[in-house]
Amino acid sequence: MEVPSPPREGRLQPTLVLATLSAGFGSAFQYGYNIAVVNTPHKVLKSFYNDTYYARHGTSMDEKHMLLLWSCTVSMFPLGGLLGSLMVGGLVDKCGRKGTLLINNIFAIVPAILMGVSKVAKAFELIILSRVLLGVCAGISYSALPMYLGELAPKNLRGTLGTMTEVFVIVGVFLAQIFSLQAVLGNPTGWPVLLALTGVPALLQLLSLPFFPESPRYTLIQRGDKDTARQALRKLRGWADVEDEIEEMRVEDQAERAEGRLSVLNLFTFRPLRWQLISIIVLMAGQQLSGINAINYYADMIYASAGISAAHSQYVTVGAGVVNIVMTGVSAGTVEWLGRRLLLLVGYGICGSACLVLTLALLFQSTVHGLSYLGVICVFSYIAGHSIGPSPVPSVVRTEIFLQSSRPAAFMVDGAVHWLTNFIVGFMFPSVQEAIGAYSFIIFAGICLLTAVYIYVVIPETKGQTFVEINRIFAKRNGVEIPELREETTGVEPHVSPPTQETFF
Q1: HSE value, Cβ hemisphere, 13 Å, CA-based, for 276
Q2: Is 467 left (phi over 0), alpha (psi -120 to 50) or beta?
């Protein structure tokens, strides 16, 4: 009788690394780049809006009209993100994880062209429309990419690859900040190129990603193609004997047969996944409502109060971007060592503390010399804390706590919460800040505390565990039993669920 080989630790094989680079650079990078690309050159873009309006009507645009148009330009991105998140469930099931990422490039290349010609066409409407399409691109990629990377990775590297979504988002933000500098492309002649650059990563992904494997889990469990899944695993792992992972997928398939293909409505009423669903909602809402976008919004004012001129504040913003990249890299490098829970708890602790100290610094900076500089330190500390846990780690956890049958519907819910809370903070914070000033950061500190308490009480540590093992941990909390897998040793081929006829709603 042949003795099965012991489980091996996965390695960062060239195929796995290059697939991650291709998928991440062409997807999450787009999200980060387009979050930040309109911030620094906003005066230049507003000038283009006004000049276009004057050419059409013979008069300058009034301030209210300009504010409305610029608000649309900014807010159309999260609105498109919400639309994209609602599309992703059907796409990843019908087209696969890799196929969805490839199709998604349409929503980057078309707006890149439209924005690139908007100045020549004298049509600022093209920029606003493009922001919607880019939001759709970001919404799809923010859900499809962690799903793809999480299913490519061996369990001992799942955390590291899971954080790559946020790493590429941050790299996109940072490069947008660099290219947006007035001395580079953030000027009256360079801004069309600045906006059109978003098409370059999409083209690179279209040229490279087809050469890498589809998710082996999707190929085996949902397509029933065992041979292709085995070939993909061999390329990704770097060894020929991958039967241990094939067996793990077979066990996962058996564990979820009773669930079928869950729709979003099924997910909300399915008791065995109750706490998993609540957990991703809390994680994604906490990520946005803890104040990261508000800190970014308030940063320029804090820098100005510290005596930093507007000309120099753009470079301070770039410095904050460096902190963001470095600490996200630290998170990616330590998530498999320190675990998901600890990074989340430490991150929220730093963010909540920074919000409390920032409140005091803003309240008393006019009477106590030097507190304005403390405000700058708080901004950098908050960004560092968010980059350690709340930003990158939820992308890891949301992939790990759902099995194959429920993951697409769960990611639709997850994405919708992410984009809705993103929009709420961006829309409401200016009004809240105007009403209560520095005390608004007390609210964010409270949200950090509540999210940390939930994580401590409810969310288990998931590092180094299979998807089925994690599912069993949550089954106890949900008060349900997972039937014993009687067929585990019978060598039964994986069950292929028939294509679902119901919509994802």
Answers
A1: 30
A2: alpha
Residues 29 and 451: their CA atoms lie apart, in Å, by 27
Consecutive 10-residue averages of pLDDT for the chain (505 residues): 52 89 92 86 89 89 85 86 90 92 96 95 93 94 91 86 89 90 90 95 96 92 88 88 85 66 80 91 93 75 71 79 91 90 96 93 81 86 94 89 83 89 79 82 94 95 85 84 47 42 43
User: Is residue 313 within 8 Å of 303, Cβ to Cβ?
Assistant: yes
pLDDT score for 256: 64
Please give the Cα distance from 405 to 410 (Å, whole number): 10
Residues 6+ apart with CB under 8 A from 474: 273, 275, 276, 401, 460
Helix (H, G, I), strand (E, B) or coil at 173: helix
How confident is the model at residue 118, as a pLDDT?
94
Burial of 64 (0-12, 13-18, 19+ CB in 10 A): exposed
How far, in Å, CA of 109 to CA of 122, rounded? Answer: 20
Tokens of 339: 């675990």
For residues 84 and 73, the answer to whether their CB atoms sit within 8 Å is no
The DSSP line for 328-385 is HHHHHHHHHHH-HHHHHHHHHHHHHHHHHHHHHHHHHTTTSTTHHHHHHHHHHHHHHH
pLDDT for 4 = 46
- Within 10 A of 116 (CB to CB), how many other CB atoms are there? 20
